[in-house]
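Intended use. Records like the one below are meant for learning the mapping from a protein sequence to its folded structure. Do not use them to infer anything beyond what is encoded.
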Amino acid sequence: MDITFSQLLTYIFWINAVIAIFIIILDNRSPQSSIAWILLILFFPIIGLISFILFGINWKKTKLTKQSPDIIFAKILETILRNQKYFLSEIATSVSGENESGKYKLMSLLLNSNSSILTLNNNCKIFNAGEDFFEDLLKELKNAKSSIHMEFFIWTSDRLGEEIKNILIQKVKEGVEVRLIFDGVGSFGRIAYKYRSELKHSGVKYKYYLDLVAPFSIIKVNYSNHRKIVVIDGKIAYTGGMNVGSEYITGGRRFKTWKDTQIKLMGDSVKLIQTVFLVDWYNSKNELLLDDKYFPKISDTMPEMQIQIATSGADSEWDSIQQLYFAMITNANKEIYIQTPYFVPDQSIMTALETAALSGISVNILMTGIPDKPIPFWAAHTYFKPLLKAGVNIFLYKKGFMHSKIVVADGHMVSIGSCNFDIRSFHINFEINTIIYDANLANEMIDNFYNDLRFCETVSKEYLDNIGILKSFRNSAMRIFSPIM
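Structure written out for the chain above:
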């Protein structure tokens, strides 16, 4: 029997679809993720198969990058790590008070899962608005003496990008080493050719992380470097939720305002953030730079602020930041405050939130009420009903776009970083968070939370009842695919 060309293509397509489903089942993913992918392939065959090839193949089982920060931490900080693990294990069994016990559990978790040492000699400053952050950043960039390292998920060659570029070019003329990392997905199409050309010819070194132009890189498009890092002279670091773009100051064309949070660090924690950048530079450029000049001695006059730096990514042994959030929720004794633009939790985080609220803990979640991406916003609504039933307080920020990623527990533990409360950030993206054990800072962040409540709508049973059957169906349909978002 003769087979037409179209029939041949159909056979080849369905053979590949069966192979894809076989891979999904053999991969032992969560049942929710496996079912979502299989349904997508069966009901939308062409879209489903292409999406699986681009976004669904689990490259974590291969060597996606050359090295991960936690492995470098473990190698160069071996003695300190061993001593701290012993010290914390001794303290954890003898401390009195629920708050102290929870704190030492969290410290031990990050030591064991992420090789994240506890640094004591630190100071920090919080920025809750892009205008304040970039004003401070531009000032520090102009004062740089030896090196500038910058890494962002999104870098835009707009007015702000131009201002930063001109400063960087000037600093190179002054003999300062400048290295930039742009994420291949987040910054794709956002940086003009002329802009990149000016950087290159001026001596500014830059690389795309998992560059989409590189051969076969398109099949790894699902893995984004979502980190935001600046390190200046190895002495000052910035990290948090803000990328490089004027919209982080003005709100851009879509939003009246943009609410975000960035942290400026000075002290020993800067060395850890510098290491993260240099490992990412190695993975992008194949150039490993761990010279002493990038890790200068820090002044001993810093206040004793306890800070750890947590990273996670496609090559991490553990989903350390997801475990961090889980531990902060489950170890809380009084209150939890969460700010996140996206809320698409996995089952473990969902159970932790419900259990905490049912145990009498005050659980408060503030997410954006004006979305930049409708699909995760719709899906988020399907998680609200059981949380409300358990006693969780949920608020939608309506003044503009809310992009902060913050968790505060029991008025003395704070996490600020790039990691959202969604499955992609937990298990796929490369992320970085700063964990600070400080009551004064925690209270500052709680005050900021309540200040933001002035611009929020409270999610109630009546709010959910008014959504309507068609929108409820749409939201639930989007939730089916939440494990693969």
